[in-house]
Design goal:
Radius of gyration: 15 Å
Number of strands: 0
Helix content: 55-70%
Shape: globular
Strand content: under 5%
Distance between the termini: 36 Å
Largest sheet: none
Number of helices: 6
Structural class: mainly alpha
Order of helices and strands: HHHHHH
């Protein structure tokens, strides 16, 4: 009997955050968004890799940035303007496992 593909719930994603982050950061500056937005290739699909995974990572980065910024109004403006994504990432603390 074949095992069902994992259900990529938030709980499961949390368990795989380090692995997901390691792969995502290799593509951070790339214009190739395959496997992160609007679908995945067959290899990833066969592994149960969810499409649109970048939204989960973006949420976690934004959540961390908001929590780690004292001025919450400024945090929201910074996130919406996104003028310095590397600073947002650094302040968010995301990726430091």
């Amino acid at each position: 009997m074949a095992h069902p593909k994992p259900s990529w719930t938030t709980e499961l994603l949390e368990n795989y955050m380090k692995k997901i982050w390691e792969e995502f950061k290799q593509n951070f500056d790339s214009k190739n968004h395959k496997n992160w937005i609007a679908g995945v290739d067959k290899e990833k699909e066969n592994l149960g890799w969810p499409s649109d995974l970048s939204y989960f990572i973006g949420y976690k980065i934004a959540e961390g940035y908001y929590k780690n910024t004292e001025d919450k109004g400024k945090a929201i403006k910074d996130l919406l303007r996104n003028k310095d994504p590397y600073r947002i990432l650094e302040v968010s603390g995301y990726g430091k496992f």
